[in-house]
Amino acid sequence: MIVSGKARLAGVLGWPVSHSRSPRLHGFWLEQLDIDGAYLPLPVAPGDLEAVIRALPRMGFRGANVTVPHKEAVMRLVDHLDPLARRIGAVNTLVARDDGSLEGRNTDAYGFFENLRQGCPAWAPASGPAAVIGAGGASRAVVAALTDAGVPEIRLANRSRERAEILAADLGGPVRVVEWSERAGMLDGCALLVNTTTLGMSGQPDLDLDLSALPQTALVNDIVYVPLETDLLARARRRGNPVVDGLGMLLHQAVPGFAAWFGRRPVVSDELRAFVLS
Ligand code: ATR
């Protein structure tokens, strides 16, 4: 990759950041679209976050992605906060405005929804209740997306019930909190099941969830993408349910940031999926 003195700049702020797939993902698009730009890993310790955020636009950066552990802290450091980011309680994308101020957005809800829409065009949000497992940061984006898409009911089960209650109170929407011990029963009549917990990820235990009450037509999605085929998705596929894996959420959430920084809207292709996994 060769960049000129006029190259547009962006990157990902995290600590650590070496595991992030975002530089490869954005680098693929920059090369594919032949854009004079660069997207860099930006390792920033929590104590340095404020100084770095202030410096970014002054250093000519068009913006950045924000990842663990900065997604919440960065909310109070931006000049403008997108209403959706405020609702979700996290910022994952920064965009510098022409006047040098910084806007904080959240594109995780968009990424989640685009992954379902493109991964399973037959699924209609209004077709029935959704069951969501987990109430962490990822769940907040998922619940916001489903609410905004018009899903009539969201049944939410989390190991710590209190966290689910807080999420429901913060986000409003058609959320009904279900006891963790009742999670298998809540699948009855659902049109969608989403795992937002870390269970099923390599090195973690699998999600313990009996699928027998879930209609065979229900779409099953896991936001875990390492491995691509989690135990949950494998079991759902075996019983005939349509499934969508979690990699697409990572890829699609990157699209609005790339478009804002580099001026072209990139496409999520099979080639990109294979490249990011390689
Ligand atoms: P993220 O931002 O990726 O969502 P998180 O905020 O740490 O990560 O949330 C992790 C989610 O996985 C939570 O819903 C968590 O449940 P608790 O709120 O009860 O902690 C869930 N989770 C993690 N390990 C779990 C386990 N062993 N059993 C059940 N749920 C688990």
UniProtKB/TrEMBL annotation:
GO terms for molecular function: NADP binding; shikimate 3-dehydrogenase (NADP+) activity. Transmembrane segments: none annotated. Residues 130-192 form the Quinate/shikimate 5-dehydrogenase/glutamyl-tRNA reductase domain. Its EC number is 1.1.1.25. Residues 12-94 form the Shikimate dehydrogenase substrate binding N-terminal domain. The keyword Amino-acid biosynthesis applies. It comes from the Bacteria. GO terms for biological process: amino acid biosynthetic process; aromatic amino acid family biosynthetic process; chorismate biosynthetic process; shikimate metabolic process. InterPro entries: Aminoacid_DH-like_N_sf (IPR046346), NAD(P)-bd_dom_sf (IPR036291), Shikimate_DH (IPR011342), Shikimate_DH-bd_N (IPR013708), Shikimate_DH_fam (IPR022893), Shikm_DH/Glu-tRNA_Rdtase (IPR006151). The active site is at K71 (proton acceptor). Pathway: Metabolic intermediate biosynthesis; chorismate biosynthesis; chorismate from D-erythrose 4-phosphate and phosphoenolpyruvate: step 4/7. NADP(+) binds at G134, A135, G136, G137, A138, I223, G246. It catalyses: shikimate + NADP(+) = 3-dehydroshikimate + NADPH + H(+). Keywords: Amino-acid biosynthesis, Aromatic amino acid biosynthesis, NADP, Oxidoreductase. GO terms for cellular component: cytosol. Involved in the biosynthesis of the chorismate, which leads to the biosynthesis of aromatic amino acids. Catalyzes the reversible NADPH linked reduction of 3-dehydroshikimate (DHSA) to yield shikimate (SA). PANTHER family: BIFUNCTIONAL 3-DEHYDROQUINATE DEHYDRATASE_SHIKIMATE DEHYDROGENASE, CHLOROPLASTIC, SHIKIMATE DEHYDROGENASE. Homodimer. Belongs to the shikimate dehydrogenase family. This is Shikimate dehydrogenase (NADP(+)). It comes from Paramagnetospirillum caucaseum.
